[in-house]
Amino acid sequence: MLHEKVAAVPLARGAIVGSKISDNSNSVEDASPRDEPPNGGLHAWQQVAGSFFLFFNSWGTVNTFGAFQTFYQEDFLFVVSPSDISLIGSTQTFLLLIVGVASGPLYDIGYFKTLIVVGSLLVFLGTMMTSLGLKYWEILLSQAICTGIGAGLTYIPFVAILPQYFSTRKVFATAIATSGSSLGGVIYPIIFQQLQPKIGFSWATRCIGFVNLATCFFAVIAMRARLLPKQRRMLIEIAAFKEAPYAIFCAAMFFAYLGFFIPIFYVQPYALEARVMSTELAVHLVPILNAASVPGRIIPGILARKGNPVAVLFGAAAVSGVLGFAWIGIHNAGGIVAFAVLYGFFSGAFVALPAVVLTALTPDPSTLGTRMGMCSTVCSLGSLCGAPVAGALLSNTSGYHALQLFSAVATLMTGALLGGQLTVGRK
Predict the structure, then answer these.
(1) SS3 286
(2) What is the pLDDT of residues 108-165, one digit of tens each?
(3) Cα–Cα distances in Å, from 213 out to 126, 146, 149, 301, 411?
(4) Cα gap 360→362, rounded to integer Å
(5) CB within 8 A of 221, min separation 6: which ones?
(6) C-alpha 263: how far from its chain's center?
(7) Which member of 149, 187, 199, 410 has the greatest number of CB atoms within 10 A?
(8) How confident is the model over 29-47, as pLDDT tens digits?
(9) Which H helix or E strand runs over 17?
(10) Could you tell me which residues come within 8 angstroms of residue 275 by beta carbon, excluding any fewer than 6 positions away?
């Protein structure tokens, strides 16, 4: 998730922005050019709570897919390869990132509330239609495409809203909001895995949909934009890729997202198929991994503010890559739980730090949104390819060794590129 600082200008009600008239339905408050973020108060903290629930239902849903991967691979009606199953989760992530970038211009011209409402409804609709799916293509359309597009439409609103309400306390507010993704990745797998054996796949999934609806409804009611962007930003700045630090960082993030989701999707199937632990414990591995990522997103941010964010991300990538190699040799319950905890913690930096690094790599703040969007597009391609390639390796080789090796090498490549960026930066 790449966070964006949005240059903004206050608008009076009734002002015409692009082709849309800003009024009460647009949820933009009156403001004078000298207005400063309130840095607190009821309305400001409502935005944090609303953003928390949007993270909860977008990235939290993505982080939940490991539980569905296990169920589809082991128990569901259709019989398809692990690669085809993981394509559902990777497509969902790809659409979240790429639709989020494409929806930026809609936010720029005043469709803040519309993006939240439509996105939330699509997430809910996709989840409920998933509960009705019996064939692979039905699950792909509902869980991957419908839910992914819905999550992508909410991407820019929850990224852009907090800087309008917080300046001095922005880091703290953002840390609270982004923790929603990890909490969603803890709660949703538990709901599914506890209810599915008792009430079946359909109703377990519908229960997740009802939680989607309730929490997104709060976000729709609570969130209001104070300001709109001063100008529409460019979608592409080709010249940025001619800057070595930026180009190297984008390449590093491609490999990060290529390997990042593989343990999240496959750690539970591995534990069950390799029989390293009981089913009762194995189904909690995804929630354990996501719970460990909460401090893994906050602590690196604190360290990055006091030092070099590229160096912190380099260390996290290096350790995550080593853990990927260690996963190959884990054949007991204690080891796989320790792997889930450590990987969740260190890989959390892949979510928390890219925006910090990109801010440091952008000499002109007015182009920050464009550069973040371009890097997000690169990340989306990595996320689309990574898990399906790993699934293909699993189907065409004996055991999980090739899948684990692919994940570890991709993550270590991230570390190598970031190390190269540190070297370039010293020259």
Answers:
(1) helix
(2) 777 888 999 999 999 999 999 999 988 899 999 999 999 999 999 988 777 778 878 8
(3) 11, 15, 16, 31, 35
(4) 6
(5) none
(6) 15
(7) 410
(8) 444 444 677 887 888 899 8
(9) strand 16-17
(10) none
d(CA 257, CA 387): 10
Spatial CA neighbour of 56 closest among 142, 171, 177, 163: 177
**Distance between terminal CA atoms of the chain?**
30
* Number of residues assigned to the chain: 427
Whole-number mean pLDDT of the chain?
84
Question: Quick check: 395 and 73 in contact, CB under 8 A?
Answer: no
Distance (Å, whole) CA 378 – CA 372: 10
Contact 179, 298 (CB under 8 A): yes
Statement: residue 14 has pLDDT above 70: no
What mean pLDDT comes out for the span 271-285?
A: 88
Q: How far apart are CA 279 and CA 119, in angstroms?
A: 35
Cα dihedral angle (14, 19, 20, 21), rounded to 10 degrees? 10
Q: What is the DSSP string of 234-275?
A: PS--GGGGGSHHHHHHHHHHHHHHHHHHHHHHHHHHHHHHTT
Count of C-beta atoms within a 10 Å radius of residue 274: 15
| Residue tagged 């996320």 (tokens) | 383
Q: Which residues touch 106 (CB under 8 Å, ≥6 apart)?
A: 114, 115, 156
Q: Would you say 144 and 233 are in contact if contact means Cβ atoms under 8 Å apart?
A: no
The position carrying tokens 């996501």 is: 290
Give the pTM: 0.82
Q: The tokens 């991709």 sit on which residue?
A: 410
pLDDT for residue 302 is more than 60 = yes
The predicted-structure confidence for 328-371, as pLDDT tens digits, reads as follows 999 999 999 999 999 999 998 888 788 778 878 888 777 777 88
Q: At which residue do the structure tokens 């190598």 appear?
A: 416
- Token readout for 212 is 């989607």
Lowest mean pLDDT among 70-74, 233-237, 249-253: 233-237
Distance CA 323, CA 346 (A): 9
Q: Is the dihedral of CA 378, 381, 387, 392 positive or negative?
A: negative
